[in-house]
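Note to self: user wants both folds in one dump. Writing first protein now.
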Amino acid sequence: MDNPCVAHRGYSSLAPENTIAAFKLAMEQEQVSWIELDVQLSSDGVPVVIHDFRLERTTNGSGNVRDHTLAELKKLDAGSWKSKKYAGERIPTLTEVLELTKGKVKLNIELKTVGNMYPDLAASVVGKLYGVWKPRDYVITSFETKALRQVKRIHPEIPTGLIINASPADLARQLEELGCHFLSIGYPYVTKSLIKEMNSKNIRVMAWTIDSSRIMRNIAALDPSIMLCTNRPELWNKANSRKLSKLFKPNSFK
């Protein structure tokens, strides 16, 4: 099994998601070639790495991320919710993550926004990447098509990808209109016909979020280029073992 393994928000099953600890742990895994992460903006315009729009689930803070300055966000504990072992872990800036990972792993950077929530998010993220990172080493993705269009207006050559948890009949047309050559799609929608169509359009596909070694192996069998996004990178090794051969169902995911 040669499919690239993508660590979802870092090694998020063991370490607190979207933290330096989670990214370091993911980078220690030989099979991990990509890391997926989420970016928003502090109230003073600094790109910070966190998934939820609100702070309560993954920090000891409260309220919206966008209503706090970077200094305020940096005071929060982003690790204790996961384990006492990670008490004091902080919300990282995108710059910190880029410095940690450059030349070591590729990044799938999700612009976490809806509508006009973050008018400057696309420009802020592109500003950190353009001319510093090679385009082959990252992709900027989002559910929000407006954000993807903003990226392309800033620099048309920046690699972008649409995130979707569906498979509309006109998906290829949507991707073409957005200028995307990357598709991040919920794994239940990954089929042989979808992969055939995406391959014909030179669109790379990432299936998310797969936390079953059996499903991982089944999807990998469709095409070796499919990127497998998981909270549990160790499952890539398990799925790659011969012990799972009896579990594989050739007719799955037709």
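First done. Writing the second protein, which came from a different request thread.
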Amino acid sequence: MTNPVRMKTFDVTIPVLNEEPTLARQVEQLHAFLKTHFPTEGQWQIVIADNGSTDRTLEIAQELSNRIPEVTFVKVPRRGVGLALKTSWGQSKADIVGYMDLDLATDLPHFLEAYRAIAEEDYDVVYASRLHPKSKVVNRPFKREVASRVFNLLLKTYLGVGFSDGMCGFKWLKREVYPELHEAGAQNDGWFFSTELLTTAEWLNKRIYELPVKWTDDVSSSRVEILPLAKRYINSMIELKKRRP
């Protein structure tokens, strides 16, 4: 008789910056989904990582934490998505850590696939890919699509990586492998940290699962400016390559 797979605990981190209008609604939607599919008490929590908000975001996060047992928050000392994730994961005790964007652009049922890939199939890292042939991308502006493909081509050419989408905000990993990835170069305080996770996982020969997804672009909530971001990413690629083991 085979032993049943042990239930894995997990933390879902949501990095936020000035998200007062939508924070409560989106977190409540995510909470309802997770509560339906993972009803066991104490198995999981949602971590709101506030990285420098100047509106009522932190206050709303505190209110949600007081009202909903599975919601907590961390206050990050300065802005930066990578810094927010490192702060959250650095204090986590869960088996699985990961993050998704507040706009829930990746359809929530994909989380069930990501969980199974790590908890049952023993993958080390799971990432969503909008560029997988089976993915369905909705409402994405043409210039963002082109920028994404160019960026990922640069990654493949310059860093020699094989993953298809380094920028998608939906990634999960065994918490036990995170210190290895950090040591190997996943250290950026900004958005590039998300790409560093996959790059260092490849360098260390971790088991990586590519997840095709349905992904809906929320153009109204985006603050991304492509050219300044591209310059930062190219500089970050150069710095990351210097750290290759």
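Dump finished. Worth passing along: The chain has one domain: 10-242.
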